[in-house]
């Protein structure tokens, strides 16, 4: 499948939220966490306006199959569960379930690296869903540690993805 990327428009916030939720539901054991994910995955027009949000779509039909966003954290933040280092973050990266494991993610990471190089971003931090750990390992991301999640008893891998 050939894909392309474009900046998201504010009017697409609800569609992006839906993609994120559908992607999370792909993993059966995450369904019980949907109320937490709904809050974390809700994309607003304001979010799109303030961050680099890209829609992944097919070249043939221009149908969205996923999205990702890059955000900048200007200072270290201490949340209730983790220290969030300052810098650039891959905050959202979701692909519709029917397109998972079909090369869309790999192609999107390639685009993401080119974009970041163009804007002088040497690396991105990211919190990975535990199910996506193998994907980020294959993409060359460097595992830093397991971090606490807002979900009690759940830990998520923290990575640094270099743009080399």
Give a nutshell description of this structure.
The chain has 164 residues and is an alpha+beta fold.
Would you kindly provide a written description of the structure presented here, covering whatever features stand out?
The chain has 164 residues and is α+β, with helices and mostly antiparallel strands. It has one domain (3-162): Aminopeptidase (3-Layer(aba) Sandwich). The protein is 29% helix and 34% strand. The protein has five helices and nine strands. The radius of gyration is 15 Å and the shape is globular.
User: Which band does the percent of strand residues land in?
Assistant: 25-35%
Tell me the number of strands: 9
Largest sheet: 4 strands, antiparallel
Rg value: 15 Å
Structural class: alpha+beta
Q: Compute the number of structural domains.
A: 1
What is the CATH architecture term?
Answer: 3-Layer(aba) Sandwich
- Summarize model confidence as the mean pLDDT: 91
Q: In what order do the strands lie side by side in the largest sheet?
A: 1-2-3-6
Parts with pLDDT < 50 across at least 5 consecutive residues:
none
Q: Percentage of helical residues? A: 25-40%
- Shape by Cα distribution: globular
Question: Could you give me the name of the CATH homologous superfamily?
Answer: Gcn5-related N-acetyltransferase (GNAT)
CATH topology: Aminopeptidase
Give the termini distance in whole angstroms: 25 Å
What is the element string, with H for helices and E for strands? EHHHEEEEEHEHEE
Oligomer: single chain
């Amino acid at each position: 499948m050939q894909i392309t990327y474009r900046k998201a428009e504010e009017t697409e916030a609800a569609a992006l939220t839906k993609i994120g939720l559908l992607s999370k539901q792909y993993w059966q054991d995450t369904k019980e966490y949907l109320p937490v994910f709904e809050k974390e995955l809700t994309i607003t027009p304001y979010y799109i306006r303030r961050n680099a949000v890209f829609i992944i779509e097919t070249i043939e039909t221009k149908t969205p199959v996923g999205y990702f966003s890059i955000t900048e954290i200007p200072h270290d933040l201490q949340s209730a569960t983790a220290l969030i280092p300052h810098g650039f973050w891959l905050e959202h990266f979701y692909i519709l379930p029917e397109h998972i494991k079909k090369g869309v993610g790999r192609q999107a990471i390639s685009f993401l690296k080119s974009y970041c190089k163009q804007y002088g971003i040497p690396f991105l931090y990211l919190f990975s869903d535990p199910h996506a750990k193998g994907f980020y390992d294959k993409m060359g991301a460097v595992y830093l540690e397991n971090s606490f999640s807002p979900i009690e008893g759940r830990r998520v891998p923290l990575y640094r993805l270099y743009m080399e």
